[in-house]
């Protein structure tokens, strides 16, 4: 196996080229960084698809304290106040930083930044670029900056494993490109690999979002937190595409309505109606679909032909699906969208494994708790990129020769169907037990099954409904607690029961 030798020995490897990885690579300058991305720069990220925007307390009537308070309220008792305060305080500076690298945000008529309002934000604080193309514009700006940065070397390859030194510290990565493995030694590794939505049959996430970084961290023994909290976006466009395009929540903010096939309001009788919190609307639509109805987002009355100019990204996505939202209602359903849980990190983005850091959606920083406040995730990735760069302590020694076990990438379809049916918007004990039993035997050799198993296992253990985690058999809340696990503790807990159940299923 070849070792990449171009960079000096104090290089940091950053895995992933979404907002978190690109910003971390830039913030680490002038330290040498090798940025490893499974897709060419600009492709294969959730970042590029973000439609809403970036939350930042910029308005004259706003303050970081108010933004933090809204974040805590959305987090349903599991967001950490000091993390919310610290990230919210960074918001305005990070918008300035992005402008500094050339991202042009939308302006109001008076020339000030235009600030949008989104559900559960008490103030107008959503900064946008190109209307609903914020993610694409931010990604373009970051990619341009990385391409111009002399300290960053980009390698297009998939990271398959982590190298360790004699003390167990992470000391680099094992990659593969076109089936050829090679290693990149490093003094520290930052995982910025994004989320796990693509483990579900219905998702808004890119195909590669199968939690690959979560599997790397879990297999290295890292503490994982709140893995069960998966946010389902209520209004993915249900027109046959996989992944499913998103119809942003801002449409309902502008008056679009959720109706069934008879034109009857789907959210009638629910507090907040069409503008209820994201998880409430997701369950409302899920319930209607389970009763055999179809659900549509009707933009005709509120927006009509203005869709094309006001929401150009959604209009284009509809056009691709053969829908004209000016004259047709858009078929929608909930889809896995964002993972609140992840690899537990401290204030510097450090995981429990020496030499291993995590940033962006793969990390559990304590910001999102049981439910993410809209437009807080791009912000979190940008903020923690700076915290990682400022606090990174690159101290690992030379990497030991690794023995990478063979892993199956295999057919994801059965896992995605299982997650959709048993670990989805509404969960119960029987379904979660079945999921654990089916996933456990696959997990030693399949990373996707391993990550799915961690979600199902922690969902089974959380015998309450909180935020995005809804148990039909435990609809109330228990005292607030985080779930913290390692792969070792999970396997020790499930092995006997899961083996027996798996054997029973096989019979
Ligand atoms: C449709 C959609 C709309 C959204 N809208 C908003 C919004 O308006 N505002 C907001 O704040 N958030 C929004 N989000 C959430 C937000 O976009 C994501 O949480 C955020 O972009 C994640 O950034 P990231 O850098 O962590 O991961 P990503 O942007 O997903 O990037 C992950 C990177 O890791 C790479 N990678 C993964 N595994 C490996 C591996 N093993 N080896 C090498 N590379 C690997 C991928 O190729 C990719 O480059 C939205 C998400 C979606 C899907």
UniProtKB/TrEMBL annotation:
UniProt domain FAD-dependent oxidoreductase 2 FAD-binding: residue ranges: 12-378
InterPro entries (alphabetical): FAD-dep_OxRdtase_2_FAD-bd, FAD/NAD-bd_sf, Fum_R/Succ_DH_flav-like_C_sf, Fum_Rdtase/Succ_DH_flav-like_C, NadB, Succ_DH/fumarate_Rdtase_cat_sf
RNA-binding listed as a keyword: no
EC numbers, comma separated: 1.4.3.16
Domain of life: Bacteria
Keywords (A to Z) from UniProt: FAD, Flavoprotein, Oxidoreductase, Pyridine nucleotide biosynthesis
UniProt catalytic activity: L-aspartate + O2 = iminosuccinate + H2O2
Gene Ontology MF term list: L-aspartate oxidase activity
Presence of keyword Flavoprotein: yes
Name of a matching Pfam family: Succ_DH_flav_C
Pathway: Cofactor biosynthesis; NAD(+) biosynthesis; iminoaspartate from L-aspartate (oxidase route): step 1/1
Similarity-based family: Belongs to the FAD-dependent oxidoreductase 2 family. NadB subfamily.
Listed name of the protein: L-aspartate oxidase
Origin organism lineage: Bacteria, Pseudomonadati, Pseudomonadota, Alphaproteobacteria, Hyphomicrobiales
């Amino acid at each position: 196996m070849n070792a990449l030798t171009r960079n000096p020995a104090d290089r940091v490897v950053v895995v992933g080229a979404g907002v978190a990885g690109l910003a971390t690579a830039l913030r680490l300058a002038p330290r040498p960084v090798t940025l490893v991305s499974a897709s060419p720069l600009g492709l294969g990220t959730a970042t590029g698809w973000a439609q809403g925007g970036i939350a930042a307390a910029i308005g004259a009537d706003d303050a970081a304290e108010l933004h933090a308070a809204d974040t805590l309220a959305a987090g349903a008792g599991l967001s950490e106040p000091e993390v919310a305060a610290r990230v919210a305080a960074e918001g305005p500076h990070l918008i300035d930083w992005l402008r500094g690298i050339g991202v042009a945000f939308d302006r109001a008529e008076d020339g000030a930044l235009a600030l949008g309002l989104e559900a559960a934000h008490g103030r107008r604080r959503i900064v946008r670029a190109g209307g609903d193309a914020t993610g694409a514009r931010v990604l373009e700006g970051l990619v341009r900056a990385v391409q111009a940065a002399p300290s960053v070397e980009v390698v297009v390859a998939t990271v398959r494993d982590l190298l360790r030194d004699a003390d167990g510290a992470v000391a680099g990565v094992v990659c593969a490109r076109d089936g050829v493995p090679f290693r990149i030694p490093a003094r520290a590794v930052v995982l910025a690999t994004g989320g796990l939505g693509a483990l579900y049959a219905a998702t808004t996430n890119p195909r590669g979002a199968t939690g690959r970084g979560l599997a790397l961290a879990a297999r290295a023994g890292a503490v994982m937190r709140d893995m069960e909290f998966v946010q389902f976006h209520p209004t993915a466009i249900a027109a046959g595409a996989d992944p499913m395009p998103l119809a942003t929540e801002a449409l309902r903010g502008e008056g679009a309505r959720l109706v069934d096939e008879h034109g009857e309001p789907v959210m009638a009788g629910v507090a907040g109606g069409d503008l209820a919190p994201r998880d409430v609307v997701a369950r409302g639509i899920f319930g209607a679909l389970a009763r055999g109805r179809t659900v549509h987002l009707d933009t005709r009355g509120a927006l009509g032909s203005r869709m094309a100019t006001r929401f150009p990204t959604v209009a284009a996505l509809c056009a691709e699906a053969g829908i004209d939202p000016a004259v047709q209602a858009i078929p929608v359903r909930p889809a896995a969208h964002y993972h609140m849980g992840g690899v537990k990190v401290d204030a510097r983005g450090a995981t429990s494994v020496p030499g291993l850091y995590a940033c962006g959606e793969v990390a559990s920083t304590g910001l999102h708790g049981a439910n993410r406040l809209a437009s807080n995730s791009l912000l979190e990735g940008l903020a923690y990129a700076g915290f990682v760069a400022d606090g990174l302590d690159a101290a690992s020694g030379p990497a030991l020769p690794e023995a990478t076990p063979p892993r199956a990438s295999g057919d994801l379809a059965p896992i995605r169907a299982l997650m959709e049916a048993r670990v989805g918007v509404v969960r119960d004990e029987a379904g979660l037990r079945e999921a654990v039993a089916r996933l456990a035997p696959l997990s030693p050799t399949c990373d996707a099954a391993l990550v799915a198993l961690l979600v199902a296992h922690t969902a089974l253990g959380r015998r309450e409904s909180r935020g995005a985690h809804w148990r039909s058999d435990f609809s109330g809340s228990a005292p607030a607690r985080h779930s913290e696990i390692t792969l070792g503790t999970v396997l020790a807990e499930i092995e006997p029961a899961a083996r027996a159940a798996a054997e029973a299923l096989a019979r």
